[in-house]
Amino acid sequence: MAKINCALISVSDKTGIIEFARRLAVLGVEILSTGRTARLLGEQNIEVQDVAEYTGFPDILNGVVRTLHPKVHAGLLALREDESHRREMEEHGIRAIDMVVVNLYPFVDVIGRPGTEPMQAVESIDIGGPSLIRSAAKNYTHVAVVTNPETYEALVEELEQNEGSLSERTHFGLALEAFRHTARYDSVVAAYLSGIEGERKEGPARLALEFVKRQDLRYGENPQQEAAFYVEQHLREPCVSRAEQIAGPELSFNNILDINAGIELVKEFDRPAAIVLKHTNPCGAGADDSLAEAYRKAYLGDPVSAFGCAVVLNRPLDAPTAEAIAELRAELDGRPAPYFVESLVAPDFDPGTVELLLRKAKWAQRTRILKTGPLGPSSVDETARDMRRVTGGLLVQQRDLLGFDRDKLKVVTRTAPAEEHLADLEFAWLCCKHVKSNAIVLAKDRMLVGVGAGQMSRVDATIIAVRKAGERARDAVLASDAFFPFPDSVERAAQAGVKAIIQPGGSKGDPAVIEAADRLGIAMVLTGTRHFRH
Q: Which 3 state secondary structure label does DSSP give 388?
């Protein structure tokens, strides 16, 4: 490849640019630049020519038009081996530009700031930058296009080792990365604009998605499946994709799924809450005034299933909760139940709590420990959509963010729920949203005591939940993610001692179901909202 003789540098993110430009200058590369980038380099005694001086045309429109000039783009697009191109360049005083170093206005950062108005976002859309990148990338056999500051060191080392030249392979790799960079940028802009008006509800006619690889995974759901974890860069909501791992082995495919499910459930609660998950379903959940007590409830919900679980908290891990995680054990057949935690997730960790856990629980060395930032109802991004891949397509829907609205409950039995049951009905309803359908949960004292998940019939889910609850079903409440087609689930619940039921209603069998509840002395309320989770 030809030697790099002239480079145009115009960057929004100036990370590493001074040292990169300095080493280019040492190699004899002439540097063109614009605006603040040119001033920054000049202040560092790096010889630089302003683009406006080179083109003979000033910056106009407050700098919006700087590099959109024929002398710039012809210098990028000219085919060096083409005699007519060389003749025209000489005729018009056009210099061949062999390298473009550009990154774009931080549109993602702007739209992520609270209170950003649409026109503020529009003003931050880069025009000149993408144009430079695309011109350079199109002519990649002659022009090196650099969009990622993380590549500076490797590129300058290659230039130093090869008398100022880059390999054809490097040129191609840079061009591919550049086109991906502008495609990602345009997709974020399009997604933002489509959400302003008109397309948020029904979705755009075409959907372009951009996810960036965060890490390769050892394997997928099973060892025979290759896997990787890709994330949305512009999402600001606390989630598994933005969590910081502070201890433990690398996350697995299944770890990520479980952690995501736990985070989404724990966001439902304003008060301290803890979730214990297996296979994306809560086997235990608790809410209380103290985090340690919330965790105790969550663990004791189903200590047998809790072996190898994910634990998710919505408050920073404190010392009492860390000690409970390390030491609390249920008795099974006269012996402490076996227990270890695959993943532990919290908004933050009080000083010393991770060390306390590692010291008191031998298994904690194997625990993936993640920090998310604040988790709760206010941390949810209501504009984000839920997506699920099917073979040959993608299902896209609004997230199910409807919570519990006491004012909209409809009491349909002769007896209304007792006041002490209303808090448990709310707790059960929020938990039931996050259990695979068909879903039945039993709760008592803001503690999940029985879960029936993913069953093909609702009565089977009820039987499992009641069996899990055992004696704790007496005076408990029951939540169902969808209506009861027949009275059989109500009858099973009554036999176990359940006192109140919350369900959506809407079945043709509602009259028979309500009659059974009245006959069996169970209070029943309808929400009018279904929460299937397939």
A: strand
